[in-house]
Specification:
Elements (H helix, E strand, L loop, with lengths): L10 E5 L4 H12 L3 E6 L2 H13 L3 E6 L8 H8 L8 E4 L14 H29 L2 E6 L12 H21 L4 E8 L8 H4 L2 H9 L13 H8 L10 E4 L7
Parallel strand pairs: 1-2, 1-4, 2-3, 4-5, 5-6, 6-7
Helix pairs in contact: 1-8, 3-4, 4-5
Length: 253
Amino acid sequence: MQPSFDLDGRVALVTGGSSGLGRAMAMALAGAGAAVVVAARRREALEESVAMIQAQGGRAAALEADLADPAGLDAVARQAAEPFGTVTILVNAAGVNLRQPIDEVDLASWQLTLQLHLGTPFFLSRALVPGMRDKGYGRIINLASLQSQRAFANSAPYGAGKGGIVQLTRAMAEAWSKDGINANAIAPGFFPTELTAPVFDDPQTAEAMAAKTAIGRNGTLEDIAGPTVFLASPAAGYVTGQTLFVDGGFTAR
């Protein structure tokens, strides 16, 4: 029996789909057959993601939204279903890392970071669960991090959020898996994105991070595609509540 990685007929919502890992994950889902809605604040970047997906033969639509606004998440969930129908795959990839020294973290920065990394994934997922339940199929993919297990300097709020998302993923799985809605997380290593620009802008730092992996290199955006499609697909039907580290063996050492 061959496992099914086919997402034809599925509709995916990818937050943070305007760049970086979110864009790469959206392109991977579209390549596997899903119609994809990418959501973020920057209209021009969203339209670029849509154009890239369409150029590879996929279907996509842009949803401009402030995902840090908790009052607007129910509207995001409703609007995400308008272009293609009920969303049955959700990728919570939107995030921010303000990189403040721990003694300089202010309340606004703390609240923004924790909202994007914990509050938004929780309330947006919960808003989409009824539609997934009606379809008898749901896949929630949260974004964890190396900082779900490791501490890095100047990242206390980010690390707190990424530690929390691992447990939130388990809680989602416990609550919703019985309805066919599986929740898992992907914890990327160092990939070249806007969020990790301070690392990749310094070749020595990038090389040092690569040397800490078992594979001996940092990630490329293509490396995130397979894990994303797997966790979104019927092939992952018995996988839930898990965090998959896609880090080249960084945390294995």
